[in-house]
Every structure is written in C-alpha cells, then in structure tokens.
Amino acid sequence: MANESRPCPCDIGDRFDYGGRGQEVQVGHIKAYVCKPSANTDKAVIVIHDIFGWQLPNTRYIADMLTTNGYIAICPDFFVGQEAWKPSNDWASFSDWLKTRDASKIDKEVDVVLKYLIEQCGAKKIGVIGFCWGGAAVHHLMLKNPHLKTGVSLYGVIRFFEDRYSLLHPTFFIFAEKDDVIPLEQVTLLEQKLKQHCKVDYKVKVYPGQTHGFVHRKREDIDPQDKPFIEEGRDDMINWLNKYI
C-alpha cells in the first residue's frame, strides 16, 4: 500500500507548458473548458480531471487531442470552485482535503454537463474519460449513469469503489505497472471480480514499466523510454472511444 503519510502520492509529473485551443465557459453552476472540432459532430467526451483540477494544462492537452480525433471535449470543474490540490500542499492533510471532494458525488454536475452537451452542442453520443480521482469518478458513472455510452478510467483509484463491479456500459481500465497508488494486487482482484459480475464489455490493461499518471503527465520528449507506452495508452483510449461512441 501507499505510504499513509502520503495516501495518494500523485506527482504533478511533467506539467505541460500548454495554453489550450478551447475556451472556458459557464455551464450551469460550474465552469468548464470546452474544445470543438472544426467539423460538426454529435459525439462528445467528458474529461474528468485528477486532483490537480480542471485547469491543469496536461488535462486540457488530452481534451484537445480528443477534439483532433473528432470529438467535442469538455473538462468541467468537478471541484465546483473548491481549490485543486497543489504540489506544495502538506500530504498529511490530503485525507481531510479529499472528504469535500468525493468522486462518487458528481452526479449533479454530470447532469448539468450532459444537458449542455445535448442542448448547446448537439451531442447525441457521449462518453467519459478520467484520470486518477477522475478515473474513480468514471468507475462510479459506469455503474449508474444510463446516458453515457462508454468510459475510460485511467489509473482510477480502485479502493474508492471496491466491491462494485456491475457496470452498465463498456469500460476500459488503464493501469501502470509501477503505480505507487494502485498496487497490482488490486488490479488483479478488479479483473477477477469484473469477470464474475460484469455483463458488458470491459478491458483491463497494465502498461509495463509505467508509473501513476503516465498517459497525461509524462512529457514523452524527455522520457524517450516511456514514449511508446504513453502513445500506446493514448491510442488505446481513442480506439476504445471510437469503438463505442
């Protein structure tokens, strides 16, 4: 298990110097980053951020990547104005910080975002992806939200949703082999339980040699040995979305 003094040792990793190609909008009671492709589309993906919040350039980079692949992408502030975690914060206070940011209590925000995508953007087929905290949120949504077509959970913290495996929609779980937050035993157990209980298509994939956050936090240009796995993870994510949206 992770060190209890650092219960979620999420490094911000390599913070991209990236401005984003989309724009910030007000969606009901929350703010969101939205990026749209040049051609009209009825396909959209909700991007759920990690503990570092909706304004992290890395997450917006992934949202823009989705747009390049033909999707309307929206990354809402699922902390609803509360401060995102900062790398300078004391990890001893993380558990208390997390109590007011529950990955399973985002349904109100998701409903507002779905309404916006359908009514304002013309979306008819909507999926969701999420990273770390957001990956756990994807797991939650795949268990209960009937309006989403599919989900991709990238290193979603499994312990948030232990013993809940009856997914409603096809779900892809991406994990890193050397993840300090998510031990491989948890991944193996997740796969076993999904095999027993899950009635829809799912996939669990572990990427060798990778660490927590590798798909959206690593700068492939400065980690050449990781570049193939970063690209593979991103390609796999897009291919899964393409298959089910």
UniProtKB/TrEMBL annotation:
Q: Where in the cell is it found?
A: Cytoplasm, Cytosol
Nucleotide-binding among keywords: no
MF terms from GO for this chain are:
hydrolase activity
Query: Looking at the UniProt record for this protein, which Gene Ontology cellular component terms does it annotate, in alphabetical order?
Result: cytosol
Q: Which UniProt keywords apply?
A: Cytoplasm
Domain (Dienelactone hydrolase) spans 30-244
Which family, according to UniProt? Answer: Belongs to the dienelactone hydrolase family.
Q: What is this protein called?
A: Carboxymethylenebutenolidase homolog
The record lists the organism as Pterocles gutturalis (yellow-throated sandgrouse)
